Amino acid sequence: MTSLTVTTKTAADLPVDALVVGTVSGEDGAGLAAGHGLPRKAVTHLQAVLADLEATAKPREVHRVVAVPGVTATSVILTGLGPASTRTTSFDHVVLRDAAAAALRSVRAKRTVAVALPGADADAVRAVADGAWSGVYRYEPVTGAPAGRKGRDTDPRVEGPKITVVSAAGGGRSVREAVRRAATVGAARDWARDLVNTPPNILFPQSFADDVKQHASASSAKVSVSVLDEKALAKGGFGGIVGVGQGSVHPPRIVTMTYAPSGAKASVALVGKGITFDSGGINLKPSAGMVTMKSDMAGAAAVAGAVLAAAEIGLPVAVTGYLCLAENMPGGAAQRPSDVVVMRDGTSVEILDTDAEGRMVLGDGICLASEKSPDLVVDIATLTGAQVVALGPDVCGVMGDEDARSAVVAAADSVGEGAWPMPLPQALRAKLDSPNADIAHKGDRDGGMLTAAIFLREFVGEGISWAHVDIAGPSFTTKEAAGRTPKGGTGFGVATLVALLEDRAAR
């Protein structure tokens, strides 16, 4: 299992398999970034190697050099930080995260790695630690079980290295706490990535619920877990999620994760869309559109990871996570376009497109969350293709009331996850008018991301602050790993939600 520690010892003296240092590009070409702590003979040797390699020091450029004189480590990993002076000690945290991740990805099979990148304060050290942890992530594919084994290991990740962050900001409490939090959030994000990457015949509503129970039980934190099965959901009037799940042999679930510390300064509800596979239902997706639809539960995965991380950190905020889990399939009992269902709060909804199912499970989840009257409700979901069209694959859209929306965007910015505030024009509400029910669940194509959020707003309890986060783009990528973003499930949203909760704790 990957581990993170911090040291103030001289980097050149650390007995590790690999030592990571930064490179920068200046007028004279690539050079070593500040903070490496290497002796002159090592610097001279590495400068000669950089020149010979015609290195550019561009972000994500990585070179490995063995047998560096004056360095105890077996090899030195040179990772690009981009244009800067060799005396620069302050770098954008996104640059530090990506550089650390790119370097660690190249040596994740090693047992011990030290990272000596510039870090002027505890926040910079945390960024380096966060990137280093992220870079060693790997999801192991499913293979046949060898003789004598009953099946796949519970934790599908390979064992990662022991990572030591060399701190130029000292080894005080704030630095140690920064590294500890980076490890906690990193582990939670890895769990979310694992959930998203798990094949849908292995991860379905009940097995998702079981996995949450196992992780909560194994954690040192006090997180209680309860599950509403299909009978409880029907009896409780959760018509949205019941309708979505009724076409599948795997019935729906709502999993509630509760962290309730004494003396909590605030209460926050996190609601995650958890469609473990989305075929589109009766409105069947084209075959190419289904290939990545095991990832349609990334919102629920982010909520699960964030709740567990907040509890393990010990934040003085009461947090309840609602994982709205269903499989959207076109079975004989599947929901039809023009069906009318009644949500948890009594609102009747006309179904126009069974491939717009996420807002239905979230609507019920938001209703349930609102019944506890939290200070803030945040829902997160891979909700609309319109989000990707509007903002691209790396930036999520954030909607809601101004205070909540601003808080989420600020939290995302603080951890280097792309987020952009979007409006909710009242005029668009008319697109959801229905002659057959209180509301239709979908408008036309124009402004699809916004009308989806306007629909969700209908289920937020009166007086409760609310934000909606659409992560359809950044939650999953088919591209090769780059920087701190792995191929497949990215775990996007975990760090943002934890940062949001940290902000609430600090108020």
From TrEMBL:
SUPFAM superfamilies: Macro domain-like, Zn-dependent exopeptidases. Binds 2 manganese ions per subunit. It is found in: Cytoplasm. One of its GO terms (cellular component) is cytoplasm. Mn(2+) 2 binds at K273, D278, D296, E357. Its cofactor is Mn(2+). It catalyses: Release of an N-terminal amino acid, Xaa-|-Yaa-, in which Xaa is preferably Leu, but may be other amino acids including Pro although not Arg or Lys, and Yaa may be Pro. Amino acid amides and methyl esters are also readily hydrolyzed, but rates on arylamides are exceedingly low; Release of an N-terminal amino acid, preferentially leucine, but not glutamic or aspartic acids. Its main location: cytoplasm. GO terms for molecular function: manganese ion binding; metalloaminopeptidase activity. It holds the Pfam family Peptidase_M17. Its EC number is 3.4.11.1, 3.4.11.10. Keywords: Aminopeptidase, Cytoplasm, Hydrolase, Manganese, Metal-binding, Protease. The keyword Electron transport does not apply. It is an enzyme of class 3 (hydrolase). Mn(2+) 1 binds at D278, D355, E357. GO terms for biological process: proteolysis. Residues 191-498 form the Cytosol aminopeptidase domain. InterPro entries: Leucine_aapep/pepB, Macro_dom-like, Peptidase_M17_C, Peptidase_M17_leu_NH2_pept, Peptidase_M17_N. PANTHER family: CYTOSOL AMINOPEPTIDASE, LEUCINE AMINOPEPTIDASE-RELATED. Presumably involved in the processing and regular turnover of intracellular proteins. Catalyzes the removal of unsubstituted N-terminal amino acids from various peptides. Belongs to the peptidase M17 family. This is Probable cytosol aminopeptidase. It comes from Phycicoccus flavus.
